[in-house]
Fold this sequence. Notes:
The protein is of the alpha+beta class. 44% of the residues lie in helices and 12% in strands. The chain is elongated. The longest helix has 17 residues, at 117-133. InterPro entries: Arsenate_reductase-like, Thioredoxin-like_sf, Tscrpt_reg_Spx/MgsR.
Amino acid sequence: xxxxxxxxxxxxxxxxxxxxxxxxxxxxxxxxxxxxxxxxxxxxxxxxxxxxxxxxxxxxxxxxxxxxxxxxxxxxxxxxxxxxxxxxxxxxxxxxxxxxxxxxxxxxxxxxxxxxxxxxxxxxxxxxxxxxxx
Length: 134
């Protein structure tokens, strides 16, 4: 199961997420959305995995978004995609996905969901044993 991380070079959360993935030996491929814009297929995949749609992935406090002065709820998918291609910094970052999960932003507890289930089960058993021995 390969993880894809859509990152931005100047984003500290992206750097933290990349470091975490490396430290936990999780295979990933990185795509810097500022230098390699999303494809329409990637954008649709990300959007389909969100619970809150565009609210989850658009950084409404970003200067790029504020300067546009548009109501994204009134845009078609194609129009929104065109705007994001022109202004990739209006996406929150990082966006981390695999076949089943998405995480927007870096959260040290939530990112653990990308650790394979077997490893998480092993870690839980080890912690439980340590707690019982104490």
